Amino acid sequence: MEEWVGGFWHKYITRKANPEFDLARVSFDEVSKSVGMVFRALGGNVVKRIEPASAREYLTRKSFLQKISGDSQQVSLAWQDDESLRLPESLALFAQKSLNHDLYIWLAVLAAHHSGSFRHWANDNQALVVKVLEKFPALRLRYQKLAKAFIDTRPSIDNLPKAEQKMEAAIVQAILTPGSVCKFPLVDFAPKAVYLWLYPSAYSGELISPEYLASEQDEGVNRENNKKLKKSETSRQKAERVNAPDEQQGMMIFRLESMFSWSEFAQLDRGCDDSDDDDDYDSTIDDLDKITLAKQQAQQKSANIKIDLDLPSASEDDIPLAEGIKLPEWDYKKQRLLAEHCLLQPMLPKDTKPQKLPVKLQKLAKTIQAQFEQLRSVRYWLKAQPQGEELDLTAWLDFHVESHITPTAEKGLFKSFRGNNRDLSCLLLADLSMSTDAYIDNNNRVIDVVQDSLLLFGEALQSVGDSFAMYGFSSVKRNNVRFTMLKNFNEPYSDHVRGRIQAIRPGFYTRMGAAIRQATSVIEEQKNSEKLLLILTDGKPNDIDHYEGRFGIEDTHQAICEAKKQGIKPFCITIDTDAQAYLPYLFGHDGYTVILRPNQLPIRLPQLYHQLTS
């Protein structure tokens, strides 16, 4: 009975202390697509991820009911950095669901015109609102509607201290009349969250200061001094650094009510012991309000081991074909190509020998070959020509009849035997990174599916007679981009090529830009009028140096643009279910396709080629 009454009281007092309208709540998932469309259409960075923001600490004055209910002062706010735009996980600020939806759109519009840093939080937001309303006057009525509804949700200022009353009045005026307030008083507590404005990046690890000052210099220092930890794929966790506790001395003092709290200090040293379940640490991190990191001194310096992924020995590695090719790489921060920044190594698979097509693929290969024979060069008669190999009897008869009725000029009376030749070359570039070693079912890995796809692709193009080449690629940093030759343009498709395909193994990382530049150079030498570059991959560009995240995306995008300028048509085929987040930017909305069932790739690859070239 006591527990029931306590639970009922907790629900009642929490509901009373929470001013949100749950029935009108709009979650981020409901608006993520429309928000992303608005953000990018109005000039927002097309590479930025748009994700929900986890709650962050926001020190504001609590009401009496909030003190009783134990409100934790964790608020989900809108902010952005160089990598992503973060919007509240859900909004239930207004009683009307349409207003909560409009607020998401408004925040996306603001973010699209914001540089990402603040010098004075309140003044910068006012200037940003003025800029947006001047650029898009049609938004003025929508903003005014949001502003008036938002002001109605603000608490009464009668019971606040005088300094906080002045701050709240300044906030209200700044929202209703953007740009009219230049100075904000200093107070001990921040005002209630202003959901109509953007906030500084949560990476800085700072609390929202009362004076709302966040200089670029302070942000840079805090980014270096605070560890960026992820709570999940779409949320971030706050962090701080402290000195490691001295375990040799000191007295342990604690309060009984804090025994079951994780918020003090969790010593997570995973250096040698992997016996614990990772899920335990994941659940612990989810419960933490703040992750505390401490640098510990090693007991034995000789026990420090640096582990890095290295290349195999020369005796076990693939066969190099040349000394290497120096290629440029795009630096998006400097907006220029870095000359000779990468070293590409052409290679042949090791221990290859001629092999027949595997028995399991032979029946399917015959079916695909029969389909592709429709694309073979077809010879036909071209009628009513002024000259040709034979007399066109139908045209001659028409001319003879018309000439007896009225004077008629002589028309084409011959027919010519012509051929419709396909003038096409295709280069297939396959991603052979270490992720292809993953299993897609109980029997097959990604690399196995890639091998079957390459084999069937070769059988199909051999039957149609198109000129084609096949290469694979992986990388270990910029000085070792491995470019594996499976078949070049001048080589016939034979058992030697089938043997190379069946000898490929999972490699390392995915430095896609360098591989695309080399593939462009190879296919550019072909004399065909149409040139197709097919890229087969299972993930986005990455490497263990700076080629992670936006750097790899921008370099790959630049390499694709360079290929298009040479008259080459790039097309990407991927099995990455998250490809919608980056492939539209890289290849355009009609320049890629996602294979949701990887085991269907061997069948779908020839079909896609048929569709692209028929």
Q: What is the secondary structure topology, with strand pairs?
A:
Blueprint: H1 2-17, E1 26-27, H2 28-41, E2 49-53, E3 56-57, H3 64-69, E4 74-75, E5 79-80, E6 84-88, E7 90-91, H4 97-112, H5 121-135, H6 140-153, H7 162-176, H8 216-225, E8 229-230, E9 236-237, E10 239-243, H9 278-287, E11 291-295, E12 319-320, E13 325-331, E14 336-348, H10 359-372, E15 378-385, E16 390-391, H11 393-405, E17 414-420, E18 424-431, H12 446-464, E19 467-475, E20 481-487, H13 495-503, H14 512-524, E21 530-537, H15 550-565, E22 568-574, H16 583-587, E23 592-594, H17 601-613
Parallel strand pairs: 2-6, 10-11, 14-20, 18-19, 18-21, 21-22, 22-23
Antiparallel strand pairs: 1-7, 3-4, 5-6, 8-9, 12-14, 13-14, 15-17, 16-17, 19-20
Helix pairs in contact: 2-4, 4-6, 10-12, 12-17, 14-15
